[in-house]
Amino acid sequence: MRIDLISIFPEFFDALDLSLIGRAQQDGLLDIRRHQLRDYTADKHRTVDSPPVAGGAGMVMKPEPWALALDEVLAADGAAERPTLIVPTPSGEVLTQQAAQDLSGHQHLVFAPGRFEGIDERVAEWAAERFDVRRMSIGDYVLNGGEAAVIVMVEAVTRLIPGVIGNADSLAEESHADGLLEYPVYTKPAEWRGRAVPEVLLSGDHAKIAAWRREQSEARTQQVRPDLWESRTDLWHN
Ligand code: ADE
Prior knowledge:
Elements: E1 2-7, H1 19-26, E2 31-36, E3 49-50, E4 60-61, H2 63-75, E5 84-94, H3 97-103, E6 108-111, H4 122-127, E7 132-137, H5 147-158, H6 169-173, E8 191-192, E9 195-196, H7 206-224, H8 226-237
């Protein structure tokens, strides 16, 4: 998968060189390219923002640097399909495991994280003629800019690409894989500071262990995320 990240803080994405995503880049599974938005300005101060038309708080990102950066990304696009442009914003569709799964099958993702009050709306309109544009949020809270959200999205999406995670079984068992939260896990020693590992886990009875884990997942989901639990029961009724 090819990923382009355009930002006034491209260094933010250095974290993607670590751990499994860093390894996936070295292995050629991922081609992540960073771009400094200010490189696409023409003035001495490399200006990317300007006051909102008709007034209002803060500053808005100017459209032209974004268009020039996106033009360059498009010119280097080798994929057969239209690239997907993701614009992180708290007013977008919320990233879910399902959305991450869907995005993990794409060949080319481009992320356009804005700062200030956001990007001039015409950029998304112009881009929609060239990209599949998705405005996406990582949750109902506000960040200072979209870069931290991009890291979350890239991590959630790329770990689902075959080969990025060594043990594919861990994907099937983790939280949200089947609409439930993950069951509690333990390691050695069997007793630690007066607390024992649940006995069933030491029984060697695989069917019993699977049933216990399922019960724990269901109980946890009902308690902590009644919204998730309800949407599962909706599925059963339809
Ligand atoms: N930019 C600011 N807040 C955000 C959020 N919650 N999700 C995505 N991008 C954002």
